[in-house]
Each structure stands twice: as structure tokens, then as C-alpha cells.
Specification:
Chain B: It is a multi-pass membrane protein. The complex is a heterodimer of chains A (250) and B (246). With 250 residues, chain A is mainly alpha-helical. Chain A is 70% helix and 3% strand. Chain A contains 11 helices and 2 strands. Chain A starts with 12 loop residues before the first helix and ends with a helix. Chain B has 5 helices and 10 strands, in the order ααβββαβββαββαββ. Classes of the chains: A mainly alpha (250), B alpha+beta (246).
């Protein structure tokens, strides 16, 4: 099932804005909340808003929301406590997120995976080129901060969040709402898969390649920035497709 | 360089500059009204011996919604953003309302991610629109920027400091003004300018302009700006005439 375009860019907006379009609403709610957990918008132990509020923010009935919460409970991403101080809480342990991502990867065909990769190739390349034309000193400083955080974090979960945040911030620096919105959706869809232990992404190498991209943006070199972003995107997708093929052969 | 009609250019710069200053002053007037409402509320609660809590701020809604209605599409949202630790119950808090955009008198309260453990934690205490009014006691406008952890729009955020008479900083009164609204307000003056003219922020980012080469969000290199930039009164912005090179 392809992920819906996230409703908003905002941290909570990505989760809580009304779903548009038709289609199976339960699946859409499940995707929205899983994406928020994957991106680190909702963190381990965080309480979800009361059912009535959450349903109205998402523009679905409480029945649909309850169905979605039941699916999320089955997937181990949410647990519910009864009684006083009760409610639904996020369970975002690395194990749960990883096993869900692996399942998700197995649901995708190589062709679908390639197609997501193609979109990321286009969006990340364009965002990097525009960021190189439009970034100010403060944008570059923000990007450098994320590269440093990635270099200094040994913990894979934190590393992945810094990585997806970095890609989103490059799009933010491009000044384009549309590119940013698309990049947020793509990160929600791709980042947990790319950081599966089986893909074996090396955080230090990752930080180096981000560093080079920030240098190109700072140097106001759009051609180089685009080339680096495209190469980065292609490399990751190739590793992911390789893993998908190996899983198929088992 | 082609000869520039100096008097015509000067007239265009004056006209756009005045319209910009007027626009910005209208925005600040609204924010001062919101700030005054907070000061009044705060003083009253303190006189009762009460330490203000987040729930007390709900009574600001009528003032904020009144300003939203008065400003129409110019304001996407407005409210107060509290000094860290000023409220008795919440370390960080903002009472912020958004117009529904459809012209109906319905407003939505903005809920932001104030969970420090979240990746997208909205820590306003180091954002420029908050720090400059706090640290320099000045009205300020930050942007244009893509506020993707906040309101999901390309905006300029305007803010004025709110202080009690003894100088205690309570927070800022602020408004998010969509860049598209600034553009539509200033376009008539820009259109009358017969040569290229851009309004840029202090960092040289274009807010509005009438030249397809220098569109909103792009940068005007400092070399091109130097000497030619005309400051716009009451703002950290300036107008840059674009001389066409032969």
C-alpha cells in the first residue's frame, strides 16, 4: 500500500491534519501514525491525543480511528492502558520499528521500490540545487548542525532521525513548500527501510557525504549540489533494492 | 549602464517604501493590542495574588480573534508566546489562534510539538523572532522562511516584546504573515515602478519584487545590494533598485 502524501509539513500537522481523498481510511490513519513514529515526531511513551480529538483532527470517525488503533496495536506500535491515566501510548522501540520496516519492504515489488527511488532522485536533486542558489548563512549553519549531530551519535535510531531531518532541511533551504512536503513524505516512507541493519549504512560515511553536500550548498554550486544529492539517493536505493532481491531469494 | 530616470526611480522607491512601512505598522499595532491585553490580564491576576497559568490565557482569545478578523488574509495566525518559565504550570507555552481561512468567524488554536524528546520539538526560545524582542527589546520581523515545524507556510513572523512596567519580560505578541499576502498588498506599488525593484530582508533574501530574475525566496548578492539599497522605515528591510547592465 503506497503511503499517502502527508497532510502537512508541521511536526504534528503531518499526523494530525485531515486526510484528504477517498480510499480506505483505516489504512491511511495507520500509515499517518506509523510515519510520525518513524520520523520521530511521536516518541516512545508519548500519549496519543484523546480519541475524539484525534479523530476530529484527522477528519475520520471514531470508529475508523479505533480500527486503526487496533491495527497499530497488532503491529506493536501502540499500546493502550485502561482506567485512570489511561489512553493510547506510542511504542517506538528500535525492534518494533525495524520489524515493521522489514515487513513493509517485503510488501513492495522491486518496480515499486525503484519508482519511489526515482521520485526521491528528482526531488532531492532539485531541492539541493535550489538550496545552493537560495541558502543563507543561517540555513547552512542549521545543516552543519545536523551533520555534526550525526557524526557524534553512535545510536542508530538517533542517527536515522538526524539523517531524515537533514534531507528535509535541505528541502526547507530550497524555500519550496512543495518540494519540502514531498521530501517529508519520502522520508516517512524510506528512512526506516534505508536504516535497516541489513542495509548496513555506515553513519560516518553518511555524515561525510552530507558534509560534502553542505559544502556545495555553501559554495553556491547548484550543479555539484544536485549531483551529490542524486548520487546519494541512487546509492541508497541500490542497497535497498539489493536487500529486497535477497529477501525474495530466501 | 543604461541611463536611469532618477526622479521616476526615486518616486517608485518612495511609493513602495511608504506602502511597506504602512503595512508593517498596521501589523505592529495589532500586536501591541494583543500584548496590552496580556499585560492587563497578568496585572489583574497578580493583584489577586494568583500566579498565572496556561489556562488563564484562554481569555486572550477574543482580542486575538478580533485582530485576526481585522487583518483578514494578512494574518494567518497570531497570539502570545510566553517567556520560558513565566507560567506556573507550563515551562513553554503559546496561546496562538489561526483564522480558518474561509472568512468564517471560526478560529483554530494552534497546537505545536512542545515535547523536548521529539525530533521536531518546537523550541521557540532560540528562534530569532523570539530572541530579538527578548534580548534587544525591539519589534522584529523574521523571514521569509518555510515554517515547517510550525504553521506549514512560507511566512514572515512579526513579533513585539511584552513587558510589565517594571521591565519583566512576559513574552512576545506575534503574527505569521504569509509572504503571498505581503506580495498582493504591495503589488500595486511595485507594478507602478517602471524599472526593476526588489524588497529584501536584512540577509538579502527577496520578499517581493517585480523582476522575474529576482523572485520571492531568491537572494540578491551583497555586491549588487551595496550602495544601492534604500532602508525601509520601521523594518529591517530595504529596497534594491535593479540596474540593468548593458
Amino acid at each position: 500500500m503506497p503511503i499517502d502524501q502527508l497532510g502537512g509539513l508541521t511536526a504534528l500537522g503531518a499526523v494530525l491534519s485531515p486526510l484528504d481523498g477517498g480510499g480506505p481510511r483505516t489504512d491511511a490513519v495507520v500509515q499517518r501514525i506509523s510515519a510520525a513514529i518513524g520520523l520521530g515526531v511521536m516518541v516512545d511513551g508519548e500519549q496519543l491525543p484523546p480519541e475524539l480529538d484525534l479523530a476530529s483532527q484527522l477528519g475520520v470517525s471514531t470508529v475508523t480511528l479505533r480500527e486503526a488503533l487496533a491495527v497499530l496495536r497488532n503491529e506493536g506500535l501502540v499500546y493502550t492502558k485502561r482506567g485512570r491515566g489511561g489512553g493510547s501510548f506510542v511504542k517506538a522501540s528500535a525492534d518494533v520499528v525495524q520489524s515493521n520496516s522489514l515487513t513493509r519492504l517485503q510488501q513492495l515489488s522491486v518496480e515499486e521500490l525503484r519508482d519511489i527511488g526515482d521520485e526521491h532522485f528528482a526531488v532531492s536533486g532539485a531541492a539541493a540545487a535550489l538550496a545552493a542558489r537560495r541558502s543563507l548563512t543561517t540555513d547552512v549553519a542549521r545543516l552543519r548542525g545536523l551533520v555534526t549531530r550525526m557524526r557524534e551519535t553512535a545510536e542508530p535510531f538517533q542517527c536515522r532521525r538526524a539523517d531524515s531531518r537533514f534531507h528535509i532541511e535541505v528541502a526547507v533551504s530550497s524555500q519550496s513548500s512543495r518540494l519540502t512536503r514531498t521530501e517529508v513524505s519520502l522520508q516517512a516512507e524510506l528512512s526506516a527501510m534505508i536504516w535497516l541493519p541489513q542495509v548496513a549504512v555506515d553513519p560516518a560515511a553518511e555524515a561525510d557525504s552530507h558534509h560534502a553536500l553542505v559544502d556545495a550548498i555553501e559554495a553556491e554550486n547548484p550543479d555539484l549540489a544536485r549531483e551529490l544529492a542524486e548520487f546519494h539517493s541512487t546509492t541508497h536505493l541500490r542497497s535497498l533494492i539489493k536487500l529486497r532481491m535477497e529477501l525474495r531469494n530466501e | 549602464m543604461s541611463p536611469v530616470d532618477d526622479s521616476r526611480l526615486q518616486a517608485a522607491v518612495d511609493s513602495v517604501g511608504e506602502a511597506t512601512t504602512d503595512l508593517v505598522e498596521v501589523i505592529y499595532t495589532s500586536l501591541v493590542a494583543i500584548g496590552d491585553a496580556l499585560i492587563e490580564l497578568w496585572t489583574r491576576l497578580q493583584a489577586d495574588g494568583t500566579s498565572p497559568r496556561s489556562s488563564d490565557l484562554e481569555s486572550l482569545k477574543s482580542t486575538v480573534v478580533g485582530e485576526l478578523d481585522a487583518r483578514g488574509p494578512l494574518f494567518n495566525g497570531a497570539g502570545v508566546v510566553m517567556a520560558v518559565g513565566s507560567l506556573a504550570d507550563r515551562r513553554r507555552y503559546l496561546e496562538w489562534w489561526r483564522a480558518d481561512g474561509g472568512g468564517r468567524p471560526v478560529s483554530q488554536r494552534l497546537v505545536l510539538d512542545l515535547n523536548p524528546r521529539s525530533e521536531y520539538y518546537y523550541d521557540y526560545s532560540d528562534m530569532e523572532w523570539f530572541t530579538i524582542p527578548r534580548d534587544r527589546n525591539e519589534k522584529w520581523v523574521y523571514g521569509p522562511y518555510l515554517d515547517y515545524t510550525g504553521v506549514d507556510l512560507y511566512v514572515c513572523t512579526f513579533a513585539v516584546p511584552i513587558r510589565l512596567s517594571d521591565g519583566t519580560f512576559l513574552g512576545v505578541a506575534g503574527a505569521d504573515v504569509p509572504v503571498a499576502s505581503i506580495e498582493s498588498r504591495l503589488w500595486p506599488q511595485f507594478r507602478r515602478a517602471e524599472s526593476g525593484l526588489v524588497l529584501v530582508n536584512a540577509d538579502g533574501r527577496v520578499i517581493v519584487g517585480n523582476d522575474p530574475e529576482y523572485i520571492t525566496g531568491s537572494k540578491v548578492a551583497s555586491v549588487a545590494r551595496s550602495g544601492a539599497a534604500v532602508p525601509v522605515r520601521a523594518t529591517p528591510w530595504s529596497l534594491v533598485p535593479l540596474h540593468s547592465a548593458d
